[in-house]
Amino acid sequence: MPRLSLTTERLALFGTLLATFGELHPACDHWAQRSKTASRKRLYGEDLVHADGSPAAPDSTLPTMTTSTLGRRAVACHVASYTAVQLAATIGVTRAFGYRVTPTALLAGAAINASTHAAIDRGALLLWLAKKTGKTSYVEHCQAVRLTDDGTLTCEVSGPGSAWMELDAALHRAIGIGAAAVTTWLTTRPADRR
């Protein structure tokens, strides 16, 4: 079978990677991410808590950490599961079609998605970007109403049904374009061809 032109090969790989990264994002955020991880990843503060998130008494003998540390740990767990699923799917899809993405390219794309995913999901960057782009009122207006176990209605600025969630997903998918382009370029550049 004749070899495809480099342009066709690049476009095909880019499209495959873009579809894989973009379509996996919701699955990783809603199926692979644990509920406790999702609820803790935006925690900030200097209050001492235990690993389960419960407040730590000054005389506690159990290991403690700050609320911010708990939040960073939660986002790290989420990003680890997200990255594992993304890497496995990328390898599986490309190999199923008889193509091998180079390890350097694979890791570069995963690093772009993982590092930006962590920064966005932690929350401060998303709020900063929302402020800089005039989306703060959108975030504040489009909140989700939740019904608690005791029948009380509460508002939640982030989470399913909120503008925060929509902006989060849009950022991840936009960054996925860059990650797919870098992965494609690194895989198909002449220096890496054998």
Spatial order of strands in the largest sheet: 1-2
String of helices and strands? HHEEHHHHEEH
The profile of the biggest β sheet is:
2 strands, antiparallel
As a whole number of angstroms, the C-alpha radius of gyration is: 20 Å
Tell me the structural class.
mainly alpha
Poorly predicted residue ranges: none
Assembly state: single chain
Strand content: 5-15%
Summary keywords:
194 residues, mainly alpha, two-stranded antiparallel ribbon, 7 helices
Describe the structure.
The chain has 194 residues and is mainly alpha-helical. It has helices at 6-32, 35-40, 67-96, 103-122, 124-132, 136-141, 163-188, and strands at residues 48-49, 65-66, 144-147, 153-156. It has a two-stranded antiparallel sheet with strand order 1-2. It has a two-stranded antiparallel sheet with strand order 3-4. A hairpin with a 5-residue loop joins strand 3 and strand 4 (153-156). Helix 1 packs antiparallel against helix 7, helix 3 (67-96) packs antiparallel against helix 4 and helix 4 runs antiparallel to helix 7 (163-188). 22% of the residues are buried.
Summary, kept brief:
The protein has helices at 6-32, 35-40, 67-96, 103-122, 124-132, 136-141, 163-188, and strands at residues 48-49, 65-66, 144-147, 153-156.
Chain-wise SSE layout:
Layout: H1 6-32, H2 35-40, E1 48-49, E2 65-66, H3 67-96, H4 103-122, H5 124-132, H6 136-141, E3 144-147, E4 153-156, H7 163-188
